[in-house]
């Protein structure tokens, strides 16, 4: 539907009913072009904006505030860790945007809840699993858009079941005062990338090294951490992010 006013033609839908943009912040592998197209079709009144870093999103927002220009903000787990580490989570959620953490790995949501349950609850942050059906994911996202804090029941139950085990693990480490495994700067970069769900090819591009070198670094990281695979390495990172940031 369109109309005119003093010689100016405008589209009612575009000019009167458009909402704030939806921001996707993090890894392109998680927030792919397909995901962006799906969101554009599902939320036609919201522009979909992708940013690979928090600083890029904040630059876009400008003086309006870190996240106040967005209707919803979907971030990956490493970006959430950045918010926790730089102390800006409170200011981000106070700006009014609905914040959700998207993840593809069950180990990620378990450790997010185990380690940051209080912050997630206090700030009304939702957890959105990406390894589900498209219809289910869009339904979850719709709830978030309507102001509901969404945390999958399976995640909450699993986290409650493992909380005592995780606490015992932390207490044991404190009692033994065992230092965390030391990684080189490059190995820490690779570990963070693994935790972010990036494949070897993308890690190689980001770090400007060959895929073969990435595989060597991953082998060393897994060996040093005493884990058996990438999933366990990611879980280790989420337990000790400050040590490898």
Report on this structure:
The structure is a single chain. With 245 residues, the protein is α/β, with parallel strands linked by helices. It has two domains: 2-158, 3-Layer(aba) Sandwich (Rossmann fold); 179-244, Arc Repressor Mutant, subunit A. The chain is built from twelve helices and seven strands. The strands form two sheets. It has a five-stranded parallel sheet, with helices on both faces. The protein has a two-stranded antiparallel sheet with strand order 1-2. It starts with a strand and ends in a 6-residue tail after the last helix. Residues 1-16 and 156-176 have low confidence and may be disordered.
Defining key terms:
245 residues; alpha/beta; Rossmann fold; Arc Repressor Mutant, subunit A; 2 domains; five-stranded parallel sheet; two-stranded antiparallel ribbon; 12 helices; 7 strands; globular; disordered N terminus; WH-like_DNA-bd_sf; Sig_transdc_resp-reg_C-effctor; transcription regulation
In short:
This protein has helices at residues 12-16, 33-42, 54-61, 77-86, 89-94, 106-122, 134-145, 153-176, 185-195, 200-207, 211-225, 230-239; strands at residues 2-5, 8-11, 22-25, 48-51, 72-76, 98-103, 126-129. With 245 residues, the chain is an alpha/beta fold. Helix 6 crosses helix 8.
